[in-house]
Structure formats: structure tokens, C-alpha cells
Amino acid sequence: MSWLKVTPAENVPLREGRSVCIGRREIAIFHLTDGFKAIDNRCPHNLGPLCDGITKGTTVVCPLHGWNINLENGKVLKPDVPVGVTTYPVRVIEGIVEIQLPEMKEAVA
Amino acid sequence: MKPRKAKKPHLVLVGNGMAGIACLEQILRYGDMFDITIFGDETHVNYSRILLSNVLAGVHGFDDITLNPLEWYRERNISLRLGVRITGVDPVAHTISGDDGAVTSYDKLLIATGSHPFVPPVPGLEKKGVCAWRTLDDTQRLLEWSAPGKHAIVLGGGLLGLEAARGLQVQGCEVTVIHLLDTLMNRQLDSTGGHYVQRKMENLGITVRTKCTVRAIHGKERVESVELNTGKILPADFVVVAAGILPNAELGRMAGLEVKRGIVVNDFLETSNPDIFAVGECVEHRGMTYGLVAPLIEQGKVLAATITGNKGPTYEGSSTATKLKVAGVEVFSAGVIEETEAGLDIVRYEDPGLGIYKKLVLKGGQMVGAILVGDTSESGRYMEWIRSKEDLTAKRRNLLIPEPPKDPGASIAEMSDSEVVCGCMGVSKGTIITAIHDRGICTLSQLKEATRASAGCGSCAGTCTALLAAVAPGFEPDVKQVLCSCVPFPEEQLREMVHTQQIRSVQQVLDIYGNGTGCEKCRPALSYMVDMVWCGEHEEDRSSRFINDRVHANIQKDGTFSVVPRMRGGVTSPAELRRIAEVAEKYNVPLVKVTGSQRLDLLGVKKQDLPGIWADLGMPSGQAYAKGVRMVKTCVGSEFCRFGTQDAISTGVELEKRLENLFTPHKTKLAVVGCPRNCAEATVKDIGLVGQEGSWQVVVGGAAGKSVRKADVLVTVASTEEALESAELFFQYYREHANYLERTYDFVERTGMDKIRRETVYAVPEARAGLLDRLRKAKSASYDAWLEREQPKTATQFVQIQPMEAPEEVSYR
């Protein structure tokens, strides 16, 4: 699995999120006080754009109906439902945000 | 000497502070056995000394920290003598004498004289502008001296020094803390913990100099600078001495008692004289002196038993556990904190990014000490483990992992009855529950009065409330609603604090008064508050704004946005309509709709198209997405309508121009109608102007939404200008006094129309001018949000990020 360069870190303001399309995925990148996080940009409830949510600590609150999603593991914290959102490893190398995608076999089809 | 006719023995208490009064409260529980006289050298009734730091930081007023008001003394027939210092004692004659010359005889003498600040020997300390920090008067003096930009030097980086530094920093001073040792709060923390606290202080803008002393204080009459041992000179407007405390044992010496560091007492709190007792910071017990509240309370209980002839309970020393919030940092420290002996296991956890440090000290499977910085949520559990000496072998793997609460009441239910809820006053869970049952207590304030729980630093108020909710059948939550558990203060108080403490960013409010994180509820509320108070002279933090206020459009269910240009009074022109039509076609806008507010809505717009659409429209934002001024709806009015009595359109357009682009606690809808037929529904708007023959009726607090409410009449005035001004007065009053997300219809019901009229349209001219001035200031700082298309707040405010690299598999395109 390789790392993909996404964008200079300053393009994502502190405590905010921005979306980016990579292949078929739309991913929300967040800049938290303790680092960057990446997660699919779709709330499991009604597909709300998570990148537009307000963050609190390592949680994002979906702007549509207020679902709380943990950005570190994709778990839905509120309401109590056993669903989750895919998260991706992120790192910042020389000021560039990089993310790691799983093998994308499906994309070739 | 006052003649006394009663036969009861005369108990004289020297010292009107927390320790003496707490002991007296315990004595009174044994019955009305004494005639009581209290001498205090301060001129105030008993107040919580712990909360002086909050007074300095502006969180509490002087009145808020009173523990025993004058009535308390009066109701108990206590003779209270304030402002008198006791300067002599004759143990043989059983008399004491004060600096007012009066001599008072006693049967039992209780010394609770507390302590005084330790002042290091530095040349220049006598200059004006040097103050030790100990009393309410000291606090008042520091508040008078401090002002934005003043240079304050704090001597001492212990608990007291850091509290002083934080308070002064909040007052806007440039603060430098000078500390002798390498570790801040070295009595409570190890060097790592001290550095965590130091980093936090520095993040708040406080300069910290450790391993450093002051060689001299310079200045003519007043302090001008301080010279460090390194030779460096720092500018100084004033100097606060907070280098520690020493017991006030002088009276003990004069009475011929055994005195070492403090007045020596035994386990019954008896001194070497059978009629003299001592309690609090002035005593030394088993070689220890104490400077925290909890030990004094424990001592007081024992002494009360001794002095009332119920001798039996003993005081065996206090564990020196401390839990406090210093400069916004939570700190807990208990027991053994350094590796002072062999055989200790240290368990550590650190997260420098979050400023969290935890250190647990174990010995043979038992916990003997702990330090927590930045997160003290588990302190109750650790304290209980240290106290109970429980064998933790089975729990060793999970010591640092909090047990998740199974249900909200579980953590309360799991507490043992002996567990101390209020560390300051030493009140256990069992005591609280007994009080609730026996006295039918329903509110936190009743509980506070009955048991003293939460009367100290107040950090246990949440637990006390949870106990009340779980146990009291008639539980009533405190009337003061707090904004959010992240910043647990009523909004009214927060507004005051933001104003007086010159706080200009959301993050600063959260750092100083909250949990540092905030949430989606309090962050937007604080954003509004900071903006409303400072009118643009603040640090705008878009991460605290709802997405609508980041991109100035209303988010829809599919993540697209709606665009509503401003159309003042519902009046448009062929040219505008043409541009709207062209924009709708050019950007393939899926739906164009006439709104209920006499305007046009373009729905289904992508975020990245917003700047282009706004530019092509060439119209200002209608703020249809904001907690702000929406529209002024108008009827045709006297210009065209044959029934019209007033010019509704031009008045409505003028009103909209005066208020547009301003933000409000919740959305604000307005309307102006030319006659009482009310075609534009002004009587169900937040603010409405209703034209009549020769006058305007100004109505407020109407609603036609989830609830329907007919607006109340604010005032009836003759001229259009007066009508507009009345609307402005109410509008600004609502902006300043309503809670966030409180619509006018809830606000007027909560506040009452009488009060609103009294403080707006019927207020004295200066008050009215004040409201209008602040409105003008806010207005001049406001701007059309859609102009951010030309100067975006951040480069990526509206655009989607384009990845620098694409994955190899994108060949499917």
C-alpha cells in the first residue's frame, strides 16, 4: 500500500475539514489539534457531508442531523448504532498531507 | 470589658476565617452551650478564601464568595467584632486585648488565626505597587492595579502564584511568574508534571522563569522594574508576592503555649493550655502544618467534640490530596509523588499534544500516590484506592483505562458511602444522602447550606447535583441554566466575563473557563457572544461556526446549498430578476422558488459554485442561512394601496438597511405594514411596525412558526423615525440579553415586557444612547458576507481540494 500526496497541510484550517475526491472515493480530511484524520465524507445516516461538520476533540458532528462520528476509528458515537465510517491512515511529510488507501481492486472494473 | 449576665461559658474565637467558622459550625451542632464572641482583623464576614482566585479572574464578584452572611452571626447571637486585631493574651487572667484597646475575658479561647504570606527578603519590597496576595482586600487592590498592557511580576510558581498569574492575565496584564525551583507547583507535582503545567501557562501567554530569583525591586516610590539574579531587568508596574505561607502563631507564643512552626496541638486539637485550643493553618500537628481546606475541616470536627466535652474523636493527620484547576489546567496530586524509596512501581501516561500527564505510584500492589495533569476525571477512583489500600493486582492492566459508566446513575451508585464528595469541606456521600433524607433537601443551594458541600472550590457541584437527582424525591435543578457542560456558566455571566476580561476568541473562553474543547452547541454560541461583545475587534474562528456561517449559504438535505439574495422590503427590479434568471440557467440551478419572506431562493447549488453565483448576481447576501436579520416583509402601503395610512415600503427598506448583516441570538424576522389590516403579517414577526392614522405601533415577540404568538406592543409613536429607533432599541437589547438560540418570543416571555420597555424605549436617555451607539458600532463593523468571494477567509473556503496525486487505478475514467 502506498501513500498518496493529497494537499499542502495549510489547505485544511485547524479544527475544520475539507473534502477531496480520490478515485471513486470522496474523503474528508480533518486538521485536529493532535494531527490530521481522514474518513469517508458520508455520514452513514443520510450521507451528510462530514467535512462540513463542527469538530469537538476527535469527534465530528454531521451538519445535517448531528450524528457524532469518531474520526480516529469511524465509529458512530451518537446515536448508539452499530455502524461505522471507513477511516484512512494519514501522515504529514514535509508539509504535505498524505493518505494511504487500501488496494483498490474494484476500481479497475 | 462588656458585662455579661449569662451563665454560659464565654467562648472567644480569634480569627473569622474558614477554619475557625467551620469549627464553630460544628460546635453549634452540639447545642447552644456558649456565649460566643468572634474577632476578625479583616473587615469582611467569613468568605471562601479558595475562591479569591475566581474573584481576581472576574468569574465571581465579591458577594458571591461569602460563606456566612451577617444574618448568620446575628441569628446565632454571636457577637462579631471585625477589623480588630488581637495583640495580647493573659492566660492567667483569662483575657485577651485588641488593638482597639478593649480587653475581653474568656472561659475558652479558640485560636484560628490562619497564616500570613512568606515574603522573601528582597530589597525594595516596601515600594508602592508590591502586594502579597492573601485577603479580599489584597484582591481588590490587585484588581485596581491591573489593566490591559500592565506588567505584573508574580513571585512564586506554586499554586497561589499560578492562580494569581492566571487572574492577572485574564485582566489583560503581561504576566511573568518567577519561581525559585525548576518545577512549578513543586509541592504537588514532579518535574514532568510541572513542565506540563508550565507549557499550559505559556500557551495562555504567561511568561514563566524557573530557577530564578529577584535580586532587587527598583523604582522611586513606586515599582518600576525588578532585577533578576541573572542581572536581567524586567519592567514592572506591580509585583505580587505569592511565595508561600507561614502560620500565625504569635498569639500562641504570647500565651506561653508550645510553639514550633505553628501552635502545637495534640490529636484532640488541645494546646499545652487546657483552656486554649487552636485549629487551622496556625497549628502544627504531628510536625505538619496544612494550607488546604480539607484538613482544617477535619480538625474542626475533632476540636468541636473536644471543646464541648465530647472528647473522643481524634485527628490523625490528613492525606495531602489536592484536586484543583489552576489557570484552566486540572491538577490532582495525592500521596507519594516521587521515587523516594526502592520498590516503587511507576505507571505513566503522557500525551504532550493534549497536555495530559498521568503518573501512578504503586507499592506492593497498592496505590500510594498519583499525579494527574490535564485530565482529573479518574481522581476519585485513585483517591479511593490510595485511601482503601485495595490490592490492585487483578486490575493492574487497566489502571489507566477509565471504567465506562454503564448508565448515568452508575458512577453515583458505585461510590461508597464513605467516599468524600466535597474535598474542600470534607463531606462524604453518606452525609449528603442523610441530609437529603432527613431535611427534605431538593436543591443544590439547600444542600450547600445544610452540609457545606460544594461551598469551597465548587468543583464537586456536578456530583452533588447528580446525587440530588438520584436521591431527592422532589429534586429541582438549579434555576441558573448553564450554556453547556463544556463551559458550565450561565450565558449572562459568560457575556459579562467576555466583556470584563477582554476575551476575544472562542478558544480563549474555552481554555480559561471551560474544558478547552467545546462542542457543536457551545462553540457557535460563544462565536456569537464574542462577536456581539467586540463587534469585529475579535478573532473570528470559523471552525466554531456552523457550516452555513462558514460558506454563507444554507445547507440542504443532500449537502448542496441554497442561495437567497437580499431583496429589501421584498422590492426588486426587472434587472435583478433578469440576473437571477440568467444565474439559474448558467449554473443549472435545479429549483427557483419564491420564499415566504418575499424573496427568491435558488436551491441545489454546489459549494464550489457559490462565489461565482454571488458575483454574477451582484446582490448582497440575504442571510437566509444565518442566526441574523432575515428580511423585512412589507405590504404595499400608502404609496399604492387605497387603504394605506403609512409608507410601509420605504420604511421597511430603511429598517432593513439599518439592521441587515447583523447577527442575532436566533433568526430575526421583521415586517412593516401600512395599516392595521396587517397584510404583511407584522403582528407575528419578531419585530413589526404597524402603521395607523398618524402613528406607528411597534410590536415585538411575535411568531408564526412551530408556535404561533401574537406580538406584544412595545410602544406607539408618532413619527417614522421614532418607530425605527424603537425597533433598533429592542433589536440591540435582544442581541445583548437573549441566550443563544432564544427567539424573541421566548425572550420577551422570560424577561417580561415591563422590564423590556423600562430598559429600552422608556430608559433614561444615556441608556438609550448606549444601546444605539453599540448598535451603530456593530453595524459599522458588519459587512456583506458574500464579498468573501473576493477575499476568502481561507484559500479552500469554497473549493474542493484537488489531490496532488491520483491513485493508479483511476484508469476507469
UniProtKB/TrEMBL annotation, chain A:
Q: Which residues form the Rieske domain?
A: 3-99
What is any one GO biological process for this UniProt entry? Answer: nitrate assimilation
Q: Does the keyword Metal-binding apply?
A: yes
Looking at the keywords, is Iron present?
yes
What Pfam families does this protein map onto?
Rieske_2 (PF13806)
What Gene Ontology molecular function terms does this protein carry? 2 iron, 2 sulfur cluster binding; metal ion binding; nitrite reductase [NAD(P)H] activity
UniProt entry keywords in alphabetical sequence: 2Fe-2S, Iron, Iron-sulfur, Metal-binding, Nitrate assimilation, Oxidoreductase
Q: Which InterPro entries match?
A: Rieske-like_NirD (IPR012748), Rieske_2Fe-2S (IPR017941), Rieske_2Fe-2S_sf (IPR036922)
The protein's name is Nitrite reductase small subunit NirD
From TrEMBL, chain B:
Asked if the keyword Metal-binding belongs to this entry, the reply reads: yes
> Start and end of every BFD-like [2Fe-2S]-binding domain?
420-469, 483-530
Gene Ontology MF, one = nitrite reductase activity
What are the alphabetically sorted keywords of the record? 2Fe-2S, 4Fe-4S, FAD, Flavoprotein, Heme, Iron, Iron-sulfur, Metal-binding, Nitrate assimilation, Oxidoreductase
InterPro entries the record matches: BFD-like_2Fe2S-bd_dom, BFD-like_2Fe2S-bd_dom_sf, FAD/NAD-bd_sf, FAD/NAD-binding_dom, FAD/NAD-linked_Rdtase_dimer_sf, NasD-like, NiRdtase/SiRdtase_haem-b_fer, Nit/Sulf_reduc_fer-like_dom_sf
**Tagged with keyword Iron:** yes
* Binding annotation for [4Fe-4S] cluster: C635, C641, C675, C679
Q: Which cofactor does it need?
A: [4Fe-4S] cluster; FAD; [2Fe-2S] cluster; siroheme
Domain (FAD/NAD(P)-binding): residue spans on this chain: 10-288
Per UniProt, residues of the NADH-rubredoxin oxidoreductase C-terminal domain are: 321-389
Cofactor binding note from Swiss-Prot or TrEMBL: Binds 1 [4Fe-4S] cluster per subunit.
What region holds the Nitrite/Sulfite reductase ferredoxin-like domain?
A: 555-617
Please give the PROSITE patterns that the UniProt record associates with this protein. Answer: NIR_SIR, PROKAR_LIPOPROTEIN
Q: Which Gene3D superfamilies match?
A: 3.30.390.30, BFD-like [2Fe-2S]-binding domain, FAD/NAD(P)-binding domain, Sulfite Reductase Hemoprotein, domain 1, Sulfite Reductase Hemoprotein,Domain 2
What's any GO biological process attached to this entry? nitrate assimilation
**UniProt pathway:** Nitrogen metabolism; nitrate reduction (assimilation)
Q: Which residues bind siroheme?
A: C679
Ranges for domain Nitrite/sulphite reductase 4Fe-4S: 626-760
- Known Pfam families for this protein? Fer2_BFD (PF04324), NIR_SIR (PF01077), NIR_SIR_ferr (PF03460), Pyr_redox_2 (PF07992), Rubredoxin_C (PF18267)
| Family that this chain belongs to | Belongs to the nitrite and sulfite reductase 4Fe-4S domain family.
Q: What is this protein called?
A: NAD(P)/FAD-dependent oxidoreductase
